[in-house]
Design a protein that fits this description.
Length: 210
């Protein structure tokens, strides 16, 4: 059960990505869940969700952690008991985590789908993208922007934060290695660096608080 990808962003931040190809039984091998997480797993009706849940525990193992090392706060944000930062994502047959020693991080994986062009107005000013005429490029761009905002939301983890009104992503080219993000909420402003990668019709974005 190999990793799909491992990205060493810098000496203190690592991204792990898993492609779910194994059966649920195979993924359950060698994984010990806490009673709470076993209850969560048992309550999942979707087999793909259960496989994703288990594959994330394998990603944690790759990073040297067990299920018992993970807990969630009241906002649903994951944390590690050793004080390092973690963020988790699952989309279809891909899962990912990012772990950082000292900086807050967020990660998101999304499938590139044309439907995003019909809902983009809900999370970004679409007139800024009028110059993009190719539908595939527009799908890619919107998916990256959504992934950026989702990653930042996972870091901020505050009820009432609006993707459209409070999270700003500076325009970028597909060739850019870094994207700049900003959250302004209740007179507080914070800044973030973001990276993205594309594979097999999916987009992965991860963010680091500056």
């Amino acid at each position: 059960m190999p990793l799909y990808d491992k990205i060493r962003e810098n000496p203190t931040i690592t991204v792990y990505i898993w492609k779910i190809e194994e059966s649920e039984n195979d993924l359950a091998q060698g994984i010990e869940l806490t009673p709470h997480c076993q209850t969560r797993l048992n309550g999942m009706k979707s087999e793909m969700h259960r496989r994703g849940f288990l594959s994330i525990r394998h990603l944690m193992a790759e990073a040297g952690y067990e299920d018992k090392d993970l807990f969630y706060d009241d906002a649903g944000k994951p944390h590690l008991h050793d004080g390092k930062y973690i963020s988790i994502t699952h989309s279809h047959h891909f899962t990912g985590i990012i772990i950082s020693d000292k900086d807050e991080v967020g990660i998101d994986i999304e499938k590139q789908r044309e439907i995003i062009t019909r809902i983009a107005h809900k999370f970004t000013p679409i007139e800024a993208y009028d110059h993009i005429k190719d539908i595939n490029d527009l799908v890619r761009k919107f998916t990256i922007v959504w992934g950026c905002k989702e990653s930042l939301y996972k870091i901020y983890a505050t009820i009432g934060l609006s993707f459209f009104n409070h999270i700003y992503i500076k325009d970028f080219e597909f060739s850019d290695k870094k994207i700049e993000g900003q959250i302004t909420y209740k007179d507080n402003t914070s800044y973030y660096d973001l990276r993205f990668l594309e594979f097999e019709g999916f987009t992965c974005v991860y963010a680091v608080k500056m």
